[in-house]
Amino acid sequence: MEPEPRPLPPEELPPNPMLPTPHTLINPPELGPPVGFSHAVVTAPGTLVHLAGQIGSGADGRVAAAGLTDQFDLALANVVTAVRAAGAAPEHLVSLTVYTTDVPGYRVAAGELGRVYRRHLGRHYPAMALFGVTDLYDPEALVELVGLAVIPD
């Protein structure tokens, strides 16, 4: 049996495949090291884009994926679609809030969820928070993502 691959320390990570963000990501050394998020973001002057909650739904609005990881994948794709439709780019995201009905499952799948995240957003980590909730509006949804982007002037 092969050992589980260890996460790379930040200095060994490959370069970010995304364009650099115009915003300043703040990670003070007095706070714990951020893993998959930034502690604070100072936005460049620009236009705010508020993103509605996105779930793992298709164009018909119905949940189109089974399981937490697949729903997270599709919800992130929907976030990117909404960001681009508003004239922004994924690197313009300054915050992303994750709501899930399955926090224990989220913890177990964290490695795979991180790979899914990087496939959509590269190594751009806005300010983020995760909340466990008892229900989401669509009873089949396991995860919902709410974001804020700033299109720089």
Overall description:
The chain is of the alpha+beta class and 153 residues long. Helix content is 24%, strand content 25%. It has helices at 68-85, 103-108, 110-121; strands at residues 24-26, 40-42, 46-54, 93-100, 127-132, 143-152. It has a four-stranded mixed sheet with strand order 3-6-4-5. It has a two-stranded antiparallel sheet with strand order 1-2. α1 (68-85) runs parallel beside α3.
Average pLDDT reading: 87
What's the arrangement of strands in the largest beta sheet?
3-6-4-5
Largest beta-sheet characterization: 4 strands, mixed
Number of separate helices: 3
- Please state the overall shape, judged from the principal axes of the Cα atoms: globular
Report low-confidence residues grouped into runs of 5 or more: 1-18
Q: What share of residues is helical?
A: 10-25%
Tell me the fraction of residues in β-strands, as a range.
Answer: 25-35%
Tell me how many strands there are: 6
The helix/strand series, from N terminus to C terminus, equals EEEHEHHEE
Q: Supply the helix-strand structural class.
A: alpha+beta
- Rg, rounded, reads 16 Å
Question: N- to C-terminal separation?
Answer: 53 Å
